[in-house]
Records
---
Amino acid sequence: MTDHNRSSQSAGMKWCLVFVLICVLCLNTGCQALLATFLLMTGGMETKAKYKFFKGKKVVVVCLAENMTNSRYDDVPRDLANNVGVHLSQNVKKIEIISPTTVNKWLDRRDGKIEDFQQFGKDMQADMVLAIYLDSFETSSPSSPGSYQGRAGTSFTVYEVKTGNAIASESLLEYVYPPNFRHMASEVRESDFKKRYLFQLSRVISCFFYSHDHRQNLAMDAHSELMR
């Protein structure tokens, strides 16, 4: 082994040790901001798309929340669907997202219910339907009154309009954001927090359909921590 190779190997081992030490330090102290900054500066963490069938397709995104009864969140299903559509249009090549206005008009004429997803997709002139189910949604922390920590139970199913078949399905169970702390109501307006939480939740859902970098999620957590 040459001196150059020994030097390169030694440097690589040192960087590995530094990485491990910083991760341990950040996990023990709860300093997500430092960890996110370090990861952003050192290499990629790309995760491949789990589902790749949206490329070049016309997709209609809809969110249903039949089990939700809190009128404070009546706007959440449509906002979530809109955000998911934006993420997909920005990250999936040649995808065409059906206009949310068109979707909402169709829903308003049918009391917000969809009995047949294949017919719904045909009415939208889409190739595929991304149906998101929002079972629960809350911005207030149940264990700490006067603070915000988003919680939502969601799942989704993808329908192929041509056949009417469900070709993909996932459940996120309860998604909590931020995961490790709460925002005090005195520090941020609920409307602003809800907007931020919906952006992050919609990104988690849409990431199933395009390659993405895990560092972005860490950076979002770090940003939320710094905003406390």
---
Amino acid sequence: MTAAAPSGLVTFLFTDVAGSTRRWEADADEMRIALAAHDEVLRGAIEAHGGWLFKHTGDGVCAAFGSPRSAVDAAVAAQRALELPVRMGLATGEAELRGGDYFGAVLNRAARVMAAGHGGQILLADSTAGLLSGVDLVDLGSRRLRDVPTPVGVFQVRAPGLATDFPPLRTLDTSPGNLRRATSSLIGRESELDEVQAAIKAHRLVTLTGVGGVGQIRLALEVAARLVDEFPDGVWFFELAAVRRSGDNRRIARRSLPAAGHRLRAHRRCRTFDHLSLFTRRRPVSGCAETASRRDRYRRRARTSVTCSCHLRR
């Protein structure tokens, strides 16, 4: 029986299938079947523990509970039954219920806590952990989460039948890479962001070109920040503003890429290259393409994102 939508102090459960993009690309039919079973397991666990499933997010769900303990119990029950690797995050707070959906800062926290985890892992924000008793929790410390202004205490749920050992959390203070944080919001470019994000997921090499000042670098950095959770090896930014000649471009790229490469595992990563405008106007694509070719010989499984002023994805 479906529960009524809880109000007041609500605990939110967010879930997501880890590595779903790779699974869809490898075998879409198999993933479609697996995702249908995943949806059934989650809905059953949520409703059995008095929760209200209010949204599907493609490869995950969002659910609300009036009791934090019921939310944790639902997450544990679902993890035990799921076959796909699913990361889960929970946070508790007040939210506005409007039009069958919730709005409020607590939802962002639940989403960011979830994104910090790995398949099979259940993470709680301190807002939920502080309301529980009789639950085995591992204190993972205070962590910086993307788009959350203050550090959040994060805890991992331990229970029989669940995995206990996971890689480090994917948070701003532990994620590999050197992507700088934006100091302002990017407004009014959602369609471009969606288009570039889709292109990076679909192609090995994506190039953004434009005259100086139109914002292609800012756009690329925003896309990279939005995709950072999908790249276990992090997002890397190489500042090539000192380049004056095309020979300098190749020399600096050859020196910079291997220096970062030893810190990265040889599978998925996203890198951003910032070229001097004069160089990219004179040779807008060929210099970047050559850099990508050289890098692919160094890491054969590389995916790249390149901008001109330039971007390269893994």
